[in-house]
Design brief:
Structural class: alpha+beta
Distance between the termini: 34 Å
Strand order of the largest sheet: 1-2-4-3
Radius of gyration: 22 Å
Largest sheet: 4 strands, antiparallel
Shape: globular
CATH superfamily of one domain: Homing endonucleases
Oligomer: single chain
CATH topology of one domain: Endonuclease I-creI
Order of helices and strands: HHHHEEHEEHHHEEHEEH
Strand content: 15-25%
CATH architecture of one domain: Roll
Mean pLDDT: 89
Low-confidence stretches: none
Number of strands: 8
Length: 258
């Protein structure tokens, strides 16, 4: 089986305008294989026997729940699941190229969720899609469904809520790493008759889904972080954390992207 990097290199030759026949002769890879890669880049799932903790007659606990809480936050922000014709599901999480440490953390979390499956990093314009195939992603992320997340109800299953309650900071970190940021604001004020500038850090989280924003804000409240809602136009899409003590808590447990 050829890995994704090899497939991308071969398709790059085809993209130069060369024929499948000439690329096949140069690489030793059949034209049929190259043609199939033009439709589906990722290899098919061959690890069909990998057990799923949620599919058993009596579901078992998720291994590495802390990592799962982080991955759940990433999925709710920048992740999605698609399905191939053979019933294999692909989890993809888009990670900005500006944050290589975040990409590594995402790939590690995906690997821990399905340790028997390969994790790929597919380069797209300005970002990498951290990708892994499995028949069990909808079991692990039951929020998967038709349509955009902000156009349908998003709610955690009881077993997911238990994980978030036990590992709230990892869940918050995943949401910030996907749809949030830490920035430095500035303002001016008069001090002794002189206008001076001062700076202060704050965290933002922006998501169009009312349900996902509520999951984020409820978890902030649970760990003692004060937050406010800021409107973008007429819609309250932003959650802000700006009070000094709350920012200090966020810095201790989340920190800026890296």
């Amino acid at each position: 089986m050829y890995d994704v990097k090899t497939r991308e290199q071969v398709l790059a030759l085809v993209a130069q305008g060369r024929s499948l026949n000439s690329v096949s002769k140069q690489t030793g890879i059949s034209r049929a294989a190259i043609r199939s890669w033009q439709t589906r880049l990722e290899p098919l799932d061959t690890n069909r026997g990998e057990p799923c903790p949620r599919c058993a007659e009596t579901p078992t606990a998720i291994e590495n729940p802390s990592s799962y809480a982080y991955l759940l936050g990433l999925y709710l922000g920048d992740g999605w699941i698609s399905t191939s014709r053979r019933g294999v599901h692909f989890l993809r999480i888009a990670c900005d190229d500006a944050w290589p440490g975040l990409i590594d953390a995402c790939a590690d979390a995906v690997q821990l969720a399905r340790p028997g499956n390969k994790v790929f990093r597919l380069q797209r314009e300005g970002c990498k899609n951290v990708t892994c195939w499995s028949k069990h992603w909808p079991c692990l992320f039951p929020q998967h469904g038709p349509g955009k997340k902000h156009e349908r109800r998003i709610a955690l299953e009881p077993w997911q809520q238990e994980i978030v309650d036990a590992h709230p900071w990892e869940f918050i970190r995943g949401l910030i790493h996907s749809d949030g940021c830490r920035i430095t604001n500035w303002a001016t004020r008069m001090v002794g008759g002189e206008r001076k500038r001062y700076e202060y850090p704050r965290y933002f989280f922006t998501n169009r889904s009312d349900d996902i924003r509520k999951l984020f804000s409820d978890t902030l409240t649970a760990v003692g972080v004060e937050w406010t809602t800021l409107a973008r136009g007429s819609k309250p899409l932003n959650i802000s954390v700006a009070r000094r003590a709350s920012v200090a808590l966020m810095d201790a447990h989340v920190g800026p992207k890296y």
